[in-house]
Amino acid sequence: MTLEELRDRMKAARVEIAENRLELVRRLLTDALRPIHAMDSRKHKTLEPAVTFDGRPRGDRVQ
Amino acid sequence: MSSDELSYATIRDIGARLRRRALSPVELTRALLERIERLDPRLHAFVTVTADRALADAKAAEAALGRGDISSPLLGIPVGYKDIYATRGILTTGGSALLADWIPDEDATCVTRLQRAGAVMLGKLITHEFAFGIQFPGHRFPPARNPWDLERMPGGSSSGSGAALAAGLAFGALGSDTGGSIRGPASFCGIAGLKPTYGRCSRSGVLTLSWTLDHTGPMARTVEDCAYLLQALAGHDAADPASSREPVPDYVAPLGRGVRGLRVGVVREYFFEGIDPEVEKGFEQALATLRQLGATVEDVQIPSIQSAGAYTAILLAEAFSYHEHDLREHPERFGEILRERMLAGALITASEYVQAQRLRARLQGDMNAALRRVDVLATPTSPKPAPTFETVYDPEYGFPRGNTGPFNMTGLPALAVPCGFTASGLPLSIQITGRPFDEATVLRVGHTYEQATDWRKRHPNV
Questions:
Q1: Could you tell me the residue ranges of all domains in chain A?
Q2: Average pLDDT, stretch B15-26?
Q3: pTM of the entire structure?
Q4: Given an 8 Å threshold on Cβ–Cβ distance, is B312 in contact with A28?
Q5: Distances in Å between the alpha carbon of B28 and those of B247, B340, B457?
Q6: Testing the interface with B: which of A48, A54, A62 to mutate, by most B Cβ within 10 A?
Q7: ipTM above 0.90, yes or no
């Protein structure tokens, strides 16, 4: 993520971050998003988020 | 028994002395309150010391013991609660200026359960701000210091819990763990800490950071003591929507069964990147000990482990969404570091959050597959020993990747156990992770290793 993209995202989200901290936030987001941006979405079976059911008695996780 | 021996005794030993009336809960509590008064001004482990409440709890425990009540191993045991657990009538700050004067009307479920088991409430233990932001100099709540070296962090966010236990200021504590906040302080402070399976222990009455990653759990000086605490904590709570109805087994009885025949899987990828050589050496020696004890140790693969970094995207997005109102209305009431981290969550798109959850599902599948071949996974708990405050206050320090977050992503039970010391005397730790709701095996492996070594017998010079 570039600093320019970071500023664009801040504008869209209506948030302000001190100029001298932008590089740290850029690094934080770059690391967090790296596996997401490397993912080929079409290779994943899409399920989440969804409610799922199995044959067990009611009460475990799904209330 | 000397004052130090008393302070560093285990819940098991102290409980036995209390039950045979060789020690009074009131006498024990007074000794700990005196120790807290003497040592905590340098450690800052406590935000609030509840001396009157502690003595009242201790007197009630004494009366119960006098009636012959020996049903609970926690009866008369002094403990502390991380300051994100609501405590009725007692200040609960979350380490934040926003809640600096908040006095809850109810106890968190975990607090209720430990109090019902007869625990003595010593007070509230400092947390990183909202369990996420490091306290910089000048912060309203000064950070806890690591009893092994006061210039180093005790880890976070359950920093007060880790420091108090390492310094012999409590026999047990509650922590919370969204990305390693129980296991990190346990690792840096040389104690044991368990993040149970997601849904095993209630989060009702505990301040939220990231609801799909947040866990509550016990911290203590030994694995067996964690088992005693977990026994009282575990079980369904309708007030927590993630709470499971999975039956609660006996966590203490199986501890002595050893590890002969158990299979320990070591994940070599991801968890060793940037690792300190002394951490790696301590970990390999711990594996050798497990082999000597009869376990089979083998390498295992988790193909999608590199996607575990997406954990941070989930954490940031959920933390921002939970705190958005206050972040927009009262940004000045958040510490600078916390505010930046949470605002970063506003910059993650809906698509990126959804994709992170999809990566999470794949990681869960891969970990579950690995845990069909082995009984537990083993990794170093932290790639490095405790950093100095000077290091973490450096603006370039950022948000280091840890070895604990992947198990918040997958919700699996994970235990930190001391496994040695660096040449300069800083604690090292091994992380043992098990199948969903199989805390019993995780604790059994940790206990067997712990009892075969002497690390738990070393204490800092406080």
A1: 3-35
A2: 97
A3: 0.96
A4: yes
A5: 34, 44, 20
A6: A48
A7: no
